[in-house]
Amino acid sequence: MIEIRTSQLSNGELNRGVFATQDIAEGALIHEAPVIPYDNEEHVHIEKTIIGDYAFEYGANHSAILLGYGMLFNHSYTPNTFYELNFDNLTVDFFAHSDIKAGEELLINYNGEVDCEDPLWFNEEQEAKEAD
Fold first, then answer.
1. What is the DSSP letter of 97?
2. Measured between alpha carbons, how far is 42 from 38 in angstroms, rounded to an integer?
3. For the chain, which domains are there?
4. Most-buried pick from 4, 7, 55, 94 (CB within 10 A)?
């Protein structure tokens, strides 16, 4: 149903994204990404590495590293995909927010809510560096 391909949207060195290999109906479960949760106090160590760029908030007291394709969904303020935290299964589950055509890139809002337009943390950091 999905595959990893080169994305024109990715700003990272790897330029990867998640793409549909077939049409996907709105509401369909697309991917269950297993997670490795850890206490928020440990994040100070992880944020010193490139892995910190891919960590998710995972509840009030934890962060998580996503496995599978979970780390490779790119951001959009008009996403076609959304995710839910599944604490029982230790996964982040990705669903189609709208109908998706084969070949389309699957995009999530990194803010967690489909319609949240708050600035992203990495854009704020970049703007601060440019102001210095």
1. S
2. 7
3. 2-38+66-131 (2.170.270.10)
4. 94
Cα separation, 128 vs 132, whole angstroms: 7
List Cβ neighbours of 132 (8 Å cut-off, separation of 6 or more): none
With H, G, I as helix, E, B as strand and everything else as coil, classify residue 85: strand
In whole angstroms, give the CA distance from residue 30 to residue 20.
9
Tell me, what amino acid is at 52? G
Q: What distance in Å separates the CA atoms of residue 72 and residue 75, rounded to the nearest whole number?
A: 10
- Count of residues making up the chain: 132
Using CA atoms, how far residue 111 sits from 5, 27, 50, 94, in Å, is 23, 19, 19, 14
34 φ, ψ to 5°?
Answer: -65, 150
3 state SS of 38? strand
